[in-house]
Each structure stands twice: as C-alpha cells, then as structure tokens.
Specification:
Elements lengths: L3 H42 L5 E6 L5 E7 L4 E5 L2 H10 L1
C-alpha cells in the first residue's frame, strides 16, 4: 500500500510530466505546420514551370508575358504564337 508521501510524490511526478509531453506535442505540431507552410510557399513563389500572363493596355493592345524561373529569363510578345515559340525553345 502506498503511503501518503509516496502517493503525493507520484502525483507530483505525473503532473510535471504532462506539461513536458504537451510541449513536445506542440513542438511537433508546430514543426509540421512550418513544413507545410514552407511547401506551400515554395509551390506558390518558386514554381518550376514558366509563368505566363497577358496584359491589355488602355488602347486594347494585348501583350503576352512569360517568366522562366529555372533560367531567370523573361519575355514580352505582342503575339501568342511568338510567346509559344519562345516557351518551346526554353
């Protein structure tokens, strides 16, 4: 049978373990969220594929733009076919 002192010591030990376990789980969860955030940021801000977009000025003229993050090159073309040709070459 446990004495009162032994029981109190046992309870104090268990109580002190709980916050440590909680901190470890919180750190693991934070680490997981950080990894997820890094993967999302990498996907959004460091794409492997060329980025293509179109602008239209006030006169209605269309300009096609592309940026290739793997080479760091970019281009502006007034025709879609010219842009597609550049993309195929790079």
């Amino acid at each position: 049978m446990k004495t009162l002192t032994t029981w109190q010591t046992s309870q104090q030990s268990q109580a002190s373990d709980q916050p440590i376990t909680h901190k470890i789980n919180a750190q693991k969860q934070k680490s997981w969220w950080q990894q997820l955030g890094q993967k999302i940021a990498s996907f959004l801000f460091e794409p492997d594929e060329p980025i293509v977009w179109k602008t239209v000025d006030q006169k209605g003229n269309v300009l096609w733009h592309a940026y290739d993050p793997s080479t760091g090159r970019s281009i502006e073309q007034d025709s879609e076919t010219g842009l597609l040709s550049w993309l195929e070459q790079h």
